[in-house]
């Protein structure tokens, strides 16, 4: 079995963000970087599947500049067999379809049986790359999975729907799955596995060598949200509050005009 897990490096969400000098993106110079949290669950599930199957090759793939090699190395220490970086210094200027197109450009001829991605990235949160990748590869996908079981070429997955409802789906391989938080408990890389990861293959593929690499969005401006007035908190008995709200609506809006 051939397994692929796609990961992304994101800024630590506790970082202090500021717009860069060009006013086009955030300044990356003082940011701490880490593997996207959703992708940690995807890596763990991929490793679990590899351990279950036994005869499997697990590749971890990431798009971005050279700093993305760090989360790739973490995934290798967690149990992936080989890493691939699609080197792209302009990845911040790609929309979800463009990102998925580059990932598909690499993966399409590799014959992967199962592909995992995180449900979404913590920085952009589009939740689109995984399902777009499946569509471009022409394979079925199940998104937002919270449970996963493989047996005899069929995967039974539990999906999280709105309102806390769960749906159980059965999918034949090849297929792609996007992973929700809580799917499993991601393992911590141990020191021996970190040392082993240093000897594992980590390839670099230039984005320019893949179809669609010249497609970039044009960023006009990046700016902080406009500051608005503070909210008004009303306290008291319900009857009094109703009168206050009506008074505010008459004074501040055209509702009663």
UniProtKB/TrEMBL annotation:
Domain Electron transfer flavoprotein alpha/beta-subunit N-terminal: 23-214
Record keywords, A-Z: Electron transport, Transport
Pfam family, one: ETF
This protein's record includes keyword Ion transport: no
Gene3D superfamilies, per database record: HUPs
InterPro entries (alphabetical): ETF_a/b_N, ETF_b, ETF_beta_N, Rossmann-like_a/b/a_fold
Entry's family note: Belongs to the ETF beta-subunit/FixA family.
Full protein name: Electron transfer flavoprotein subunit beta
Upper taxonomic lineage: Bacteria, Pseudomonadati, Thermodesulfobacteriota, Desulfuromonadia, Desulfuromonadales
């Amino acid at each position: 079995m051939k397994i692929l897990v796609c990961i992304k490096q994101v800024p630590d969400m506790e970082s202090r963000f500021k717009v860069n000098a060009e006013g086009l993106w955030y300044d990356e110079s003082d940011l701490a970087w880490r593997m996207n949290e959703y992708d940690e669950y995807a890596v763990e599930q991929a490793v679990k599947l590899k351990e279950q199957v036994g005869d499997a090759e697990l590749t971890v793939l990431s798009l971005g500049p050279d700093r993305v090699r760090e989360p790739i190395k973490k995934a290798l220490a967690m149990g992936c067999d080989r890493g691939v970086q699609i080197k792209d210094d302009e990845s911040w200027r790609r929309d979800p379809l463009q990102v998925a197109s580059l990932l598909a450009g690499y993966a399409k001829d590799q014959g992967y049986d199962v592909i995992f991605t995180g449900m979404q990235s913590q920085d952009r949160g589009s939740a689109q790359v995984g399902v777009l990748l499946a569509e471009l590869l022409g394979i079925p996908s199940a998104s937002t999975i919270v449970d996963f079981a493989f047996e005899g070429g069929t995967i039974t997955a539990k999906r999280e729907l709105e309102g806390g409802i769960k749906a159980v789906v059965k999918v034949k391989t090849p297929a792609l799955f996007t992973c929700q938080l809580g799917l499993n408990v991601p393992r911590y890389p141990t020191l021996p596995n970190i040392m082993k990861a240093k000897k594992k293959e980590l390839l670099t593929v230039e984005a320019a060598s893949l179809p669609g690499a010249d497609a970039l969005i044009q960023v006009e401006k990046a700016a902080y949200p406009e500051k608005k007035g503070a909210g008004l908190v009303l306290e008291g008995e319900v009857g009094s509050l109703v009168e206050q709200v009506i008074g505010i609506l008459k004074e501040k809006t055209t509702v009663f005009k």
